[in-house]
Design a protein that fits this description.
single chain, alpha+beta, three-stranded mixed β-sheet, 3 helices, about 25% strand, globular, binds [hydroxy(3-phenylpropyl)amino]methanol, binds nickel (II) ion
Amino acid sequence: MLTMDNIVRDGHPSLRKVAEEVPLPASDEDKATLERMLEYVKNSQNPEVAEKYGLRPGIGLAAPQIDVEKRMIAVHVHDEKGNLYSYGLFNPRIISHSVERAYLTAGEGCLSVDEPYPGYVPRYARITVKGVSLDGEEVKLRLKGLPAIVFQHEIDHLNGVMFYDHINKEDPFAEIDNAIPVD
Ligand SMILES: OCN(O)CCCc1ccccc1
Ligand code: NI
């Protein structure tokens, strides 16, 4: 199982590279890696397991964070209605997005960043994501709220972008125009 020892930290070159497309159908190795990533995210949200193995809770994980420069992400998150979005995706891409933006009022964090970077992280409020799931199916997801934010955070990792890159350096909590706050 993956633990925090497998997660590279800010400053590691893998976090600033553009990850490679995964050749499909995915190899057994790439499938095993993505399954381990999704298992990490689920384990990290289980208090007993997280405590036992010292896992920092995360609602997503991107392959570059475990030093695998491939376009693979795992997400395990509930939306405000309690709907679960649990996916391992190969080659995810945002195929359309709203003009309106959104941001987490609590700001964002990252398993690869050990110190806090306070501030609002502007994201698209709604996105449509296409990718290939662990069982080889093409998926098309229309997302809003926290799920939309997490998928954008993870897809950013595939392009060498960190959440704090988006924070207003002059005024981290400056109002973001045309944006809805997400709690
Ligand atoms: O890349 C995932 N990871 O660093 C875990 C934290 C994910 C995350 C945290 C806050 C808002 C969106 C996504
Ligand atoms: Ni992250």
